[in-house]
Known about the structure:
The complex is a heterodimer. Chain A is mainly beta.
Amino acid sequence: MLEIPCPFCGPRPEVEFRCGGEADIRRPADPDRCSDRAWTDYLWNRTNPKGVHRERWWHVHGCRRWFVVSRHTVSDTILAVSDSGQTAQPQETAADG
Amino acid sequence: MAEGPVRLPVGGRIDRKRRLAFRFDGRRLAGHPGDSLASALLANGIRLVARSFKYHRPRGIYAAGPEEPCALVELRRDEARVDPNCPAGEVELFDGLEARSQNRWPSLAWDVGALADRLKPLLPAGFYYKTFRWPAALWTRLYEPLIRRMAGVGRAPRLPDPDRYAHRHHHCDVLVVGAGAAGLVAAELLGRAGLSVLLVESRAQPGGWLADGGAGVRLDGDAAPHWLQAQLARLEALEGVRLLTRSTAFGLYDHGFVGVLERIADHLPLPAPGTPRERLWWVRAKAVLITTGCLERPLVFPDNDRPGVMLAGAAAHYLHHHGVLVGRRPVIFTNNDSVYGLALELARAGAAVTVVDVRPAPPARWERELCEAGVRMLCGRAVVGSEGRSGLHTVHILALDADPALSLPKPLAADALLVSGGLQPNAALFAQARGRLCFDEELGAWRPDEAPPRLWAAGGANGRLSLAAAVEDAARAARDVIRSLGGREPRLELPRVEEETFAQTPFWCSPLKGAAAARRAFVDLHNDVTVADIAVAIREGYRAIEHLKRYTTAGMGPDQGKIVQGNLQGLVARELGRAVQEVGTTTFRQPWTPVPFAALVGAHRGPLFEPLRTPPTHPWAEAHGALFEDVGPWRRARVFPRSGEDLEAALRREARAVRTACGVIDASTLGKIEVAGPDAAIFLDRIYTIAVSRLRVGRCRYGLMLRDDGMVLDDGVVARLEEHRFHLTTTTGGAARVLAWLEEWHQTEWPELRLWITSTTEQWATIALSGPRARELLARLAEGIDLDGAAFPHMSFREGRIAGVPARVFRISFTGELGFEINVEAGFGLHLWEALIEAGSDLGLTPYGTEAMHLLRAEKGYVIVGQETDGTVSPLDLGLEGLLAKNKGDFIGRRALALPALQSPERKQLVGLLPSEPGSVLEEGAQLVPSPEATPPAVSEGHVTSSYFSPNLERSFALALLARGRQRHGERLWATRLDGAPVPVEVVPPCFYDPEGQRLRM
């Protein structure tokens, strides 16, 4: 069970959280000018990297805040966390072996 | 000379003055406090204790710990307290203990299953895969029941476990696993550095190899047991160090998370009153140090499984702990130095000892002492066979440089054969936590290589096989841990260990030549996997170690092949001509030793399994004989039968009453959420399909929430309480999901919107009153609300007092009749309910449950999210286009509805069904097929989502999702039945009652 450092509450066991999948998926601002392909990309396609993955976590049994965790998908090492209020700008790219 | 194992007159940590009575297979026996079941059996001269898994071969006690592959027994305290598969060496003896052998019928000595041993050619590797292949029809009726009966060794108890099991969460700086020499030294260093340390030890006493005698090694000039006592006293004095015995770290998980099973009362007849039998510790440690020592590898040779064959380390354990000499004419067979101390001790205890060493000469250090003690040395030789059906009496020895064609093995009388195939670092926990192992050619064993963060291994577990090296390595690891945690290194002198060297030479299998080739040489003693099986699997093309494991089942028994590792890879490597490292290990998974389900479950069973939520009128419903059903986390009244009524009769009466007079239901379980703030309307416009911003204060509307893929997520009513304040209802099961949904979109997508979201489900009791006489009844109790239809129209709400308490009344309906949902503070819910029941007695007011609610809404064609929908149903499929606002801008799910797949005319759409036979009720989930002759695999055109008998229509009806359904009204189809021929149905519009909605607006 992971130990996740909630930016608001400190380190807490994984069972207090829910994972919300890949971070930095922006909902297209103008859906009507979005092609079917672009829309289904937004809905379904994810990078699923082997390596560092930026993903959203929700402290559901705690402060109920969403935030972003950078986790290595092979070692499960958590490299960084950030408040998701600022997820608008993706930071470092989330790929490498 | 007498034969077999015997209790010595002195020695061991047993209390010879006291006797403990116990039974094995019904036989009355006695042991002493300090005995294990295994040592007590040996002391009684018993060698045959088990039958093997596949061939039912006679087996004895092979080990002294959890690695035991043979002597697994069933412990029985009473009918409910039955523990199968207990390693006999791990069971501490208590007075009245009752043990039984397993996997034999009718008895241990006469076992019919042993016929399998004669059928050897019929039971090759991959037997199941090869045999039970066809015909497929026989699988469920014959093969599976047969395999299920044969499979497994022990049997699970049939009654609920009557004992208590506790859980504890623990945080510490360092968890040290294993209180042998390395663990004890490391714990002292860590404790002196001021760290909080939890030291766990599987056995009842700490000390590990030192407690097993330590082969005569001296520390600080003292005998091992004395040093051990002094070291324990030093640890006791350290405030931050806590030692848990009888506690096994069974699983290392991510980020320093470790499961530890503490066996509080397994060594007692019953737990002391008020105490748990076992306690599961969930430990989160900043660092974990593995000091689990070594396991001894067996040696592989023909007939290496007879009762009397045993690991040499186990013989040392039985000697030092229990004063048991495992044989009076023991032969020790080895490839390493670890056995020589034991050889001397056995000889000094009066045994006639022979050592067979595969190496050309014994270690020089021991030579003189061995000679003086009269130990016979046979070097450069190997054991290549044994005799003795239910107990070993002869071993066969062959010189390794002999020409197998010319020389015959020499027989040697022996009553015990003590084998040592070398020491294998016990790195299972290290590997579980994804630490990497490597095969050290010099060591001839697997050892830890690269450690993940927070994890260290030291001592024997880290491949340091001599005591001096292990102690030094433990200190090194402890200092690493202290540095990584930012602690200050203490000054500490390490114990001086009189130097002993340690050497071992890999030896995977004795020569299998001549007559010996026909005999079985077991690699996995539990699952009866032989060298020949491995060879067959390789011949059949299996190369990867994980495949070989599964095909041959090597390492898949209850012991999980703890001592199979090493020999298995060594043999495979030899067979394939590869390096052992290349062959690799199989994956080490949790748990290290079996953990009872009861311990994992702890207190979370029965009523404590899940919290139960009940609505405010629950006590009334219970008092009035309601039947209940669980809906999401809630227990709701399903129906209120009167005396003599069955469920169906009560349901019909309740449903009729709502249509003809009035009915009342507790709808408090509906989710309720308040959204407030200047941007609340903008936010809800994006969340709902309807135009919330156009709702006037005092009005409410029914709307849908979609996921962004266009599918229905939930439905409910939105009421505008004030300009910037909204009250939302959700489905009973969807309350938590919808709250989460709103919070997620607000926090992650539109954090700039100014609003607050609050769950108010528990704040309000909601009593829904509906039926043609609802207004008449409500008028008797309402104050300050004009109930006139024009003043209080459908889909609006008013505030006032009902039955004397403040209330918010919504004029909405889920039955299709004139309806009011009365919200009062939750604490007034029961009061309101009782006031309504009393006031409505002369109006035919009838309390109704969820069954009638479902029936009534289905008559109207109102969908239930989760019944008509399943996450793949869009509002277009439901015919709810009218709820999709056209001109308010974007909302979640809108764009996806334009995707070709969602616009497809082929999609399943909501329809009504009328069975041709009005009395026949369809099965919910039934498939709709075009012809009664359709047999599997028929193409399904749709399925039934809701189905009832309606007392109001006086016939059965159903709702269904049907491909192109809206164009197919009037068509005839067939609905499948699980137990009979499909029944004909007519497709109709999905509303069966008052389609114009006149009754809502009365």
